[in-house]
Amino acid sequence: MGWVGDAVESIKSLQIRQVLLQAVSLGMIVTSALIIWKGLMCVTGSESPVVVVLSGSMEPGFKRGDILFLHMSKAPIRAGEIVVFNVDGREIPIVHRVIKVHERKDTGEVDVLTKGDNNFGDDRLLYAQGQLWLQRHHIMGRAVGFLPYVGWVTIIMTEKPIIKYLLIGALGLLVVTSKD
Amino acid sequence: MHSFGYRANAVLTFAVTILAVMCTIASLSDNLNVPSPTADVKVLNINWFQKQPHGNDEVSLTLNISANLQSMFTWNTKQVFVFLAAEYETQQNSLNQVSLWDGIIPSKEHAKFWIHTTNKYRFTDQGSNLRGKEFNLTLHWHVMPKTGKMFAGKIVMPGYSLPEEYR
């Protein structure tokens, strides 16, 4: 129980200068995380540079909890690429593979059909009612890199919020009570 | 300075750093592998060829696909996704890519294969342009790593054509 006493002691002995210093360093941590995220957005050209796989529709390639790095370049979309797309009326973006592409000659617009590797049929059932093809504006990015398991952290935190609050609380306490 | 917390933190940071470095090296080592795959596709039969009620041409093919993709597998390869696409140009579209067949190759032992199949996905045009159409069959592959960057490539096989009449 000695360390609890120490912690209480250190909170008691805080001086205004130390509190300010800790507030600034906490702010630094938050802002540098934000800078990294926004910087990634600029570099990759995608509004969410990293996504977590939430469903098993791309197994065995991507499992639930894996992380994908996205890139959105001007390059045209081609069959076989794994794209992340938003369907009107659905909140959660979907990660599936392109199986058909029709690119218009005059305007350069594309009609794209996708399918999950582990699904039996194509994605027309997932699209909005009556929608046959995805267009360019539905697509948020294409997957270029892969990191297994790391996404479980966010899945656990969104599904069990209490763990998130415990973690934030513990970290906050650590920052406040640390002496340098 | 030498409390339990500091040491635990240092060990954890070191472990995560080493893991990240190892993942990066594993992904970079894929660049050293230069694959030399081979593929051969024969269209054995045109089962039927017709215009759908709403005006799009559709054709059903019987294909014989043989390929050797063993050189793609490295120690960082989880699987290879391989698919065969028909690619052609029409008046309206500068590029049409229609996937006809695909498969997942889980290991090097399965990477030399031979398959006799009808097209798994519908070969449908946007419109009615398939009569007498010349097309390429392209074998594409996407290498999924255990960690890191994904790779893709293709073999284009030109010189296939569809009949002049519906049947």
CATH architecture of the largest domain in chain B: Sandwich
Count of distinct strands of chain A: 6
Order of helices and strands of chain A: HHEEEEEEHH
**Global morphology of chain B:** elongated
Give me the Rg of chain B, rounded. 23 Å
Number of helices of chain A: 4
What does the main sheet of chain B amount to? 4 strands, antiparallel
- CATH topology of the largest domain in chain A, anyone? Umud Fragment, subunit A
Integer average pLDDT of chain A: 86
Share in β-strands of chain B? over 45%
CATH topology name of the largest domain in chain B, in short, is: Immunoglobulin-like
What is the straight-line distance between the termini of chain B?
A: 83 Å
Largest protein-protein interface? A-B, 27 and 32 residues
Oligomeric grouping of the chains: heterodimer
What is the ordering of alpha helices and beta strands of chain B?
A: HEEEEEEEEE
**Which of globular, elongated, flat, extended, rod-shaped describes the shape of chain A?**
elongated
Termini separation of chain A comes to 22 Å
Number of domains of chain B: 2
CATH level-two architecture of the largest domain in chain A: Ribbon
What is the domain total for the residues of chain A? 2
Strand coverage percent of chain A: 15-25%
EC number (chain A): 3.4.21.89
Catalytic activity (chain A): Cleavage of hydrophobic, N-terminal signal or leader sequences from secreted and periplasmic proteins
Protein name (chain A): Signal peptidase complex catalytic subunit SEC11
InterPro entries (chain A): LexA/Signal_pep-like_sf, Peptidase_S24_S26A/B/C, Peptidase_S26, Peptidase_S26B
